[in-house]
Amino acid sequence: MFNLQIIPVGAFQQNCSIIWDNNKSAAIIDAGDEAEKIIQFVESQQLKVEKLFITHGHLDHIMAVKTLKEYFNVEVFGSHQADQPLFEHLPEICQEYGLPPVPAFLPDHWLNESDKLSVGELDFSVRHLPGHSPGHVGFFDFKNKIAFTGDVIFRNSIGRTDLFGGNFEQLIDTIQSKLFDLDDDFIIISGHGSHTTIGQEKKSNPFLK
Predict the structure, then answer these.
(1) Alpha carbon distance 1, 7 (integer Å)
(2) CA within 20 to 30 Å of 192's CA: 15, 32, 44, 58, which one?
(3) CB within 8 A of 208, min separation 6: which ones?
(4) Contact criterion met (CB below 8 Å) for 139 and 148
């Protein structure tokens, strides 16, 4: 069984997703900030964190990752290596946004198209989803028809393309070729705001008409 808790964290209210199976094997996706709040939930549910997943290297998705990696003694998976400069310059980027600097780090494993990841009984396929950032990836559970796609697409909107490595045409191509091939009832967990479905975005997203 697929279990999910979304915890909006930090100044950007980024959706940190905690997923787990019936044996309480868990992963944390995009630990953007407020590590203490995330730890509190994990421990309240007696979850066993196995991995940390990252969709992309923007600061609001990674600022708590290093703390949680050390606390739970687990490895970090993602994003694609094209995002490496974002990880390396994390302290300076934090300061640019008026936030206390967070130490730079690199994931333990860069991810590529078609990589497979498991969390207990849950299985994910990785898709490279560039456009919002060059190394953006998504995590797709085809059995349960749910995907964690970071800041590629939102309910009736799309991700920004004016940041490092962003490209509007590439983002639209990513959505049309690597999201819109999914079934209409596939659930999309975005990096901010409410969840949506592929069918809903095909029907009403003004950027994708």
Answers:
(1) 20
(2) 44
(3) 158, 172, 175, 176, 180, 201, 202
(4) yes
CA distance 128 to 104: 23
Name the pairing type of β-strands 25-29 and 48-53: parallel
Cα separation, 147 vs 103, whole angstroms: 29
pTM of the entire structure? 0.98
Summarize pLDDT for 72-84 with one digit per residue, the tens. Answer: 999 999 999 999 9
Q: Is 85 helix (H, G, I), strand (E, B) or coil?
A: helix
In this prediction, residues 175-197 reach a mean pLDDT of 98
pLDDT at residue 147 tops 90 = yes
Q: Closest Cα partner for 165 from 131, 127, 137, 129?
A: 131
CA proximity to 83, closest of 168, 11, 14, 150: 150
Average pLDDT, the chain: 98
Question: Reading across the β-sheet that carries 196-197, which strands appear in turn?
Answer: 116-119, 122-128, 137-141, 146-148, 187-189, 196-197
Tell me, what amino acid is at 44? Answer: S
